[in-house]
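Quick one, tokens below:
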């Protein structure tokens, strides 16, 4: 997991920009001259969401949040931010449908990154199982659930 290089200063007042995966959408985001604090994560894992909550907890009321990345990660982060008391209008969502998604392999529990859409197949980078990708995002795993696309050929 990549995380912020600098801790957020207490009472930060500005824009927290959070990106998931390899998206670059947020790089050019205009914060309207306000200070920005960047956080980068591979996926919306429990650790990443905990780091986000902690950053929001240290921030000044009225801080703005920009979330960029695959839809499920962005949604999970938005939910975590709402739990921290942020209002909907304080959160900007930049969905990136083409960002690489992390697929969980139920056979070896490894994760594989893919830019393929849900419904397409991807080879598990660990065990080589052909995984059908789904839209089902597990917040616990921080990944989309894959399933064996060719069960009859696996054994
Ligand atoms: Zn596997």
């Amino acid at each position: 997991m990549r995380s912020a290089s600098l801790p957020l200063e207490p009472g930060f007042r500005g824009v927290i920009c959070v990106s998931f995966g390899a998206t670059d959408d947020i790089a050019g985001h205009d914060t309207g001259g306000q200070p920005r604090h960047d956080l980068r994560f591979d996926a919306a894992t429990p650790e990443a969401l905990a780091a986000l909550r902690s950053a929001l907890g240290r921030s000044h009321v009225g801080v703005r949040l920009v979330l960029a990345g695959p839809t499920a990660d962005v949604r999970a982060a938005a939910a975590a931010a709402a739990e921290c008391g942020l209002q909907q209008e304080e959160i900007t969502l930049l969905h990136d449908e083409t960002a690489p998604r992390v697929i969980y392999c139920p056979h070896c529990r490894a994760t594989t990154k893919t830019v393929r859409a849900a419904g397409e197949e991807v080879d598990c980078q660990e065990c080589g199982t052909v995984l059908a990708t789904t839209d089902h995002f597990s917040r616990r795993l921080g990944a989309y659930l894959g399933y064996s696309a060719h069960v009859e050929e696996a054994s």
